[in-house]
Amino acid sequence: MCGGILLGPSALGRNLTYLHTVFPPTSYTVLDTLANLGLLFFLFLVGLELDPKSLRRTGKKALSIAIAGISLPFALGIGSSFVLRATISSGVPEAPFLVFMGVALSITAFPVLARILAELKLLTTDVGQVAMSAAAVNDVAAWILLALAIALSSTGHSPLISLWVLLCGCGFVTFCVLVVPPMFKWIQQRCPEGEPVNEMYVCATLATVLAAGFVTDCIGIHALFGAFVIGVLVPKDGPLAGVLVEKVEDLVSGLFLPLYFVSSGLKTNVATIKGVQSWGLLVLVIFTACLGKMVGTIVVSLWCRVPFREALALGFLMNTKGLVELIVLNIGKDRGVLNDQTFAIMVLMALFTTFITTPLVMAVYKPDKKLGKSEYKQRTIQKKDPNSQLRILACFHSTRNVPALINMMEVSRGIDTKDGLCVYAMHLMELSERSSAIQMVHKARKNGIPFWNKGQRADANQIVVAFEAYRQLSQVLIRPMTAISAMNSMHEDICDSAERKMATIIILPFHKHQRLDGQLETTRADFGHVNRRVLEHAPCSVGILIDRGLGGSTHISASNVDSTVTVLFFGGPDDREALAYGARMAEHPGINLLVVRFLVNPEIAEESLKLDVSNGSSGGNANSTDDEFIAELKQKTENGSIKYEERVVFRAAEIIEVIREHSRCNLFLVGRMPEGQLAKSLNANTSTDCPELGSVGSVLSSPEFSTTASVLVVQQYQNPLPLQSLSSLKKVEV
C-alpha cells in the first residue's frame, strides 16, 4: 500500500516526466482492468474466509462486541461527515457520503486481522477467537452497508432508482442462496477427501464468480459483491475450498493486488492536504476512527466481564483497516462520493490505524505466562511420580507423521489406567507470506476442540478421523492443538505449549522421511532447525522420532501389539531418560523391552580413570547414578517383559556391530548425548549433519546402517542444559 502511494503523485509521481514515462495515460485503462479483476477474485477469497455456520454459532460476547464496534464508529463517521461536507467535501451527494464515511470508519479488515493475530501468536487464544468472530460479523455488516451506500450513489437523483437497485441486489442474493449451494453440494459429492479435485469444477466455480460479478455490476451495485456472495456460499468443510485457495491466491496476491495498490497509489495525492485546516481534519478523522472502535469495543467487553487488558487489546485489534478499507475508499472515489482531498485523508487514516495495531497490542497484552517451578514438577519421565499422569506433547507436520505418532501413543500407554496418559496432538502449521487466512482461521477454529466434537463432519479431515478412531479404541485422552507461526519462531509455540500443558516429554518428527528403498530423504531442512531450537529451549524432556514405519501405516490395537523395544545404554542423564521411557513402555502387555548396556574393557577403564583424575575431572557420580538406576531396573526384569544384558566392548567398531545384532527390533530408544569413555569413542568416529540426533542416533539413521527399526532419540530436561549438549546444537546453526 505504501509502495503504491510512493509511486503515485504523492512522491515519485510529482515528477511528471517520470510519471508519464512509467505510467503513460494510455496504460491506466489496462492497469485498472487488471486491478479490478484481481480485486474481484480477492473478494471471492474474502468470502471463502467467512463461514456462515460459524457466524450462526457466534457467541453473545463476540456478537455484542461486533455490534458495538460497528454502531459507535458508524455514528461518529456520520458526525465527522458533516464537518467534512462543510469544509473540503462540499458539493458531494449527502446521503451516499454519510453512509460511505460511516462504513469507512466502522469496518474491520478480516483478512488483515487474521494475519496480525497469527504473527502475534494470538490466533488460538481467547482474545484471538473473540476478535475473529467479531470481525467476521463486522465484515458482513459492513459489506451490506456498503451495498446500501452504492445503491444510494447510483446515477440519477430519483430515490426510486436507488430503491430499485437495492431490491434487485436483495433478489440476486436470494437467488444465489437458493441456487448456488445445491450446485456446490453436487460438486462436493464428486470431490471425495484425499483425491484431486477435477479442474473442470475449479473452472466452473471461477466462471460462476465472473458471472456473478457481471450480474451485480449490471444491477448497479458493484462487481465485487457478486464475487463475495459466491465465496461465502462455497462449502468450507470439503476439499474444494482449499483447492480454490491454492489455485487463486498466488495469482491474486502475487500479481493482481500489487497492481491494485499501484492503481490506488496513482489516485492518492497527499499533496492535496494543505494548510492547517486539512491537517486538522486528518487528525479529526484518525481520532474519530480510533475513538469509536476502541470505546465501543472496550466498554462492551468490560460489560461482558472481559479483563481490562484483554478488552484493551480487543479495542486495538478491531481498529484494523488495511486493504478492505482501501477497497471501500476506491469505490467511493470512483462513484464521485469522495474527492481527491478526502480520499487522501481517508487513505492516511487507514494506514495509520493499521500500522499502530501490532505495536499497541504487543505493549498491552502478553498472554504467555510462565508457570512457577512449584506448579510444573513432572518435567522428566525418570523423576515422574509413577502414580501421576504422563503428559505428552506430540507434534506432527502432515498426515505422513500420524500413523507412527498414534502407534507411539499406544506403546506409551503403560499400565491400562483411564487417566494414565494424556496426549496433546499439535499440528505444526507454517505461517508464510503465502499463508491464506482461510487456512489459518479454520485451523484456529478447531484448536482445542475435541476431535470427537459432534459439530464436525467425521470425514472432514483425515487426521481427525485417525485420532478419533484411536481415541475410541484406546480411551486415551487426546487434545488437539495448532501452532501457526513462522519457521524461525515455531519452537517458541512448541515450548510455550509444553509449559502451559505441563508436558513431561515433547515428541518431534525427524525432518527426514523414509523412501521406498529404505533410505532417509530430507522432507524439509527447516524442520531440523525447529527441532534443534526445541532441544535448546524445551521446558521438559524431548524425543525426536525417526519413523521407519513404526507399527505399519495404520494403528495397531492393544490386543495385537507385539513389538520389541531396544534401549542402548551407555550412561548419563539422556540414556537414563530413554531407559525410563522404555520401562514405561514395558508395562504394555504387548511390548518386550531389551536393555543393552555397553561396558568398557576394565583395563581401558582403569587407564581412563587415571587420566580423568589427573585432569581434575570425575565421572564417579554419574556412574553411581547409572548403577543405581540399572539396579532398580533389574528388580523389574522378573515380570518377563524386560530383558537385560551387558556387552563389554573395546572400540567404536565393536559398538556398531553389537547394535547391528539387534537391528531386527521394532524401536530403538537412545539418549542424545550419552556419557562415558565408549560414548566419547563413538562420537569421535561418527560424523553427522544432524547433531540433534547425537552420536548413537546418527549411527542408527546413517545410510550404511540397514534396519527397519524406528528410532526415538531422547534428551532429558536439565536446567541449564550442559555445555557440551548446547555446543553440539550450535554447530550447524547459521
Brief synopsis:
The chain has 734 residues and is α/β, with parallel strands linked by helices.
Please report the total strand number as a whole number.
12
Strands of the widest sheet, in order across it, are 3-2-1-4-7-12-11-8-9-10
Round the mean pLDDT to the nearest integer and report it: 80
Amino- and carboxy-terminal Cα gap: 33 Å
Main sheet specs: 10 strands, mixed
Fraction of residues in helices?
55-70%
Compute the gyration radius: what is it?
31 Å
Shape annotation: elongated
Number of helices: 28
**Spans with pLDDT under 50 lasting ≥5 residues?**
448-460, 608-620
Content of β-strand: 5-15%
Kindly name the structural category.
alpha/beta
Structure description:
It contains 28 helices and twelve strands. It is an alpha/beta fold and 734 residues long. Strands 3-2-1-4-7-12-11-8-9-10 form a ten-stranded mixed beta sheet, with helices on both faces. A two-stranded antiparallel sheet has the order 5-6. Helix 22 links the parallel strand 8 and strand 9. The longest helix is centred in the first third of the chain and has 31 residues. The two termini are 33 Å apart. The relative contact order is 0.09.
Notable characteristics:
single chain; alpha/beta; two-stranded antiparallel ribbon; 12 strands; elongated
Write the layout of secondary structure elements.
Blueprint: H1 2-7, H2 16-22, H3 27-49, H4 52-56, H5 60-86, H6 94-106, H7 110-119, H8 126-152, H9 159-189, H10 199-219, H11 223-233, H12 239-267, H13 275-303, H14 308-317, H15 323-334, H16 340-364, E1 390-396, H17 402-411, E2 421-430, H18 437-446, H19 462-474, E3 477-485, H20 490-500, E4 505-509, E5 512-514, E6 520-522, H21 525-537, E7 541-546, E8 563-569, H22 573-586, E9 591-600, H23 602-614, H24 620-636, E10 642-649, H25 652-661, E11 667-671, H26 677-684, H27 694-701, E12 710-715, H28 723-729
Parallel strand pairs: 1-2, 1-4, 2-3, 4-7, 8-9, 8-11, 9-10, 11-12
Antiparallel strand pairs: 5-6, 7-12
Helix pairs in contact: 3-11, 3-12, 3-18, 5-6, 5-8, 5-13, 6-8, 6-15, 7-8, 7-18, 8-9, 8-14, 9-10, 9-11, 10-11, 13-14, 13-16, 14-16, 15-16, 17-19, 20-21
